[in-house]
Every structure is written in structure tokens, then in C-alpha cells.
Amino acid sequence: MPDADGATTEIEEVRAWAAGLEVLHARIAPRFARAEPRRRVLAYLRGLLGAVTRKNGWQLAEHAGEATPDGMQRLVSTADWDPDLVRDDLRGYVVEHLGDPAAVLVVDETGFLKKGTTSVGVQRQYSGTAGKVDNCQLGVFLAYASPRGRAFISWPGSCWSAPWTPRSRPPG
């Protein structure tokens, strides 16, 4: 029975999200050659979806209870897994759960203001976030939105089977 503030409903919703993440993990886990990366990718996804303030190797490792970021860095840099097959699995998951003829793709360019120059892509350039030329990174993001829900896809082409590069047109 729900509390006056609906806390029981929120707990049930969180449990459902956790179960859904487990199902998604089971779908992509075979794409990782060794057991360690298979386990770590679930912790990585939990960190990305969780309340970790900064989504970098150190914070994701700490969230996963790891003493150093080495394992998370190894997962994204040298672990044996096929990102194209994981992408295909994720695309299938999104289509199964959110697919709808009324769906739209949402593209957003966002500027991240930076003080230094050591992050990849930082330079003086126009940023809509700042409304002027400033020291920043720019990111272009793609999401799939339907009446059944929404999913962050990333940059154009990352979830489609046809190749796409910044110098070519996206498929379709």
C-alpha cells in the first residue's frame, strides 16, 4: 500500500528500472569476451544512469566500489568487446521497447564551457550555451522519442546500421 507521498510507488518504479537494466545487461553481456568486463559493464551502466555527479573513470569506479579507475578505463579502452554488436543489441532493445510510428529523432547541439585546454575538442568557438565565442567543447546529441518513452542515442549514426561520418550524410 502506498504512503501518502507515493513512496511505495517510487520504490516499485526503481525496482522495475533495475530489473530492466539487468535484462539489458543480459542482452549485451555475451558481446564481452571475458567475465570481468561483462560484470564491469553493468557497474559502468549503473554509474552512468545513477546519481554520479561527474561521469568519469574515477567517479564511476568509486560508485562501483573500486579503489582505482583502472578497470573502468580498461573496459572502454582495451577490453575485448565489439561496440558495433553492442550498438546493434541496444538498437534492437530500443525498437522493441519504444518503437512507434509517431517517434521522432531529437538532435541537440550543446556547448560545455571550459576554463582549460586539456579536454578533447576544447577551443575558442561559438557556443549557444554562452551566447558568444568562448573556450568550450561542443557536443551533438541524438535522442529517440516516442509516446512509449525516450532513449538517448548519442551522435548521429551511432545507432543505425548504415555508416555515417561527419563528412557524409546520415542514412535515410
Report what the structure shows.
- The protein has five helices and four strands; from the N terminus they run αααααββββ.
- With 172 residues, it is an alpha+beta fold.
- The protein has two domains: 1-81, no CATH class; 82-172, no CATH class.
- Strands 1, 2, 3 and 4 form a four-stranded antiparallel sheet that branches.
- A hairpin with a 4-residue loop joins strand 2 and strand 3 (132-146).
- Helix 1 packs antiparallel against helix 2 (35-49), helix 2 (35-49) packs across helix 3 (57-63) and helix 3 crosses helix 4.
Keywords:
single chain; 172 residues; alpha+beta; 2 domains; four-stranded antiparallel β-sheet; 40% helix; 21% strand
State the end-to-end CA separation.
Answer: 49 Å
Provide the domain count.
2
Q: How many strand elements?
A: 4
* Overall average residue pLDDT: 84
Uncertain residue segments = 156-172
The profile of the biggest β sheet is:
4 strands, antiparallel
Order of helices and strands: HHHHHEEEE
The rough form would be described as: globular
> What gyration radius follows from the Cα positions, in whole Å?
19 Å
Q: Structural class, please?
A: alpha+beta
Helix content: 25-40%
Q: Figure out the total of helices.
A: 5
Beta-strand proportion: 15-25%
